[in-house]
Fold each of these.
Amino acid sequence: DSVLVHGAALNAIRSYWDKLRREFTELDPYRTGYLQSDELDDILTQHCPSVNQEDLDMLQAWNR
């Protein structure tokens, strides 16, 4: 079941990738390649409504 949830989130991220990339670039003007976790969460929830807290937690876990 969680595989389907995360698959849906991944598809949403892919669908909105151009918008997300623009937002990431605006938040990272020096192109360091890093964002704060709360910035990432805000961008994803704003542009990808199907991304839920479980998905965000999973992304955070990958970063550790």
Note: The helical segments are 2-15, 17-27, 37-47, 53-62.
Amino acid sequence: MDGQVSQRARSEQCGSRKQGLERQWLQGQTVGKDPAQGRAARASALASTAFGRTLAAAMLAATLGLLPAQGRAGTGCDSEPLAPRKLADAAQTALLVADALDRRDAPLALVARVGTDLSAQGLVYSHVGFVVRDHPAGRWTAVHLLNECGSDRSNLYSQGLVNFFADDLVNQDARIVWLEPGLAQRLAERLRALPSGALHQPRYNLIARPGSADYQNSTAWVLETLGAALAQTQTPSRNAAFAAAQRDGFRADRVHIPYSKRVLGGLFSANVAFTDHPISTRLGGDYPVVTVRSIVEYLERSGHVQAQSEWRNGRAMRTPGAL
């Protein structure tokens, strides 16, 4: 599930139409040790002060070829530049995440962020993507599905970690989930080969029904990609990939959207399709969805999680918290 359904029906994954940045499968913006290890380390040290945070972001931008985003997440995807403080915050989070990724010998991990406040649904993280080591786009590259500016379309994007955490988020909390080696390797190989075998349905629905053939959202794409790696077949279909995840123990979450709120509250937008669910669900208001929580809890139950790290309010958590 990509974002909270509100009157604006706002998805936090809006694929910003940036000039020369975030081009699909062409160039990712990366944070890592190669080739700029020394400058990234100095940026991390500088980031301990308010001025240093902004300077650190500037250093990262200069070192890694980054520029402030020309658009941001939201239904309008307007051209308002990202505020320097937000870019600095994103750069600091990217440094923390990249450093943690570098310390483990793993080709891939899941990384979650908080782009929409889902606390009313008892959820913390709203979006998750894969982060791939030595991807064609860069050292550490986030590969994920983004809604195109509140429309009914989506695309797959490869982004550097700074841009991944600079998309007008609620906060800079982050969680890394490392997977067992065999699954991680198969996923990394699959993602490096994109767009081949992408399992992508471009018709976007914020509350896509798990296993829907007609729609997809970012969390559904992640789940189906996991299922494809589990199936270990050459060219699995979306249906086969979802079925593999179900057989392996995946169970959908449920979010409650009362019928009265849906009808009277103006919950209509191009990126929300209630008709993806049967009439009984729409009348009852309990919608099955794929959430970050349901993905991670399924992976934990099935024994696919090797380790996790989490940051809340910029601080490393001794024990990862609720999802």
Note: Residues 37-316 form one domain.
Amino acid sequence: KAALIDEFQDTDPVQWSIFERIFTGIDVPMLLVLKQAHVNRPKVGL
């Protein structure tokens, strides 16, 4: 089991405190996606 937290760079202190309370004391790795690079994403003309 693992927890994946996507868009972690947008996490605020309240959200982080919730994650911290959930995962403190249990053996589940948290995978934090800190910065995303969109590769081969089609460009949209606006």
Note: Residues 8 and 20 are 13 Å apart (CA to CA).
